[in-house]
Amino acid sequence: MEKEEIIKICEQFEIADYTINDDGTIDVVGDVNLKCLGLEKIPLKFNKVNGNFNCRSNYLTSLENCPMYVGGDFNSEENILITLKGCPTIVMNNFICENNKLKSLKYSPIYVGDSFYCSQNSLTTLLHSPKILFGEFSANVNKLVLLSGCPEIIIYADPKNSDNISRLI
Prior knowledge:
Strand order of the largest sheet: 1-2-4-6-8-10
Helix content: under 10%
């Protein structure tokens, strides 16, 4: 995608404070709000979003082009996702993928700084869910047959407070 086309799409979706990287991805300072727009795919290839990334309530079947890093919440609920492939690797706050068609949590983020919500899908197992969470884990209204693979440690505290984390070591 050419730089001029990226700029035009950023303007269309009111993405203001961004940098276009050499590889054509974009880094955004602030939030990206793509909710309720009837999107079938993410229109730009994001790299980092320092705020929230909201792509809920669309017709997404894939998370291709989502940022690898989200500094706030990542919300992809109410789409028709069957896989988390392409979702962020790191989400500093909440990760929300509720009310989709997910059968697996494979490709889940390796780090979620707050809560993980995967309710109302078609999950049969919790394998590949984050191992450590700093908030809630919600997986109700699924087709679970086993609970193995659920988070091993859930800390209801601020992950940025080293006193809480040091108690685990």
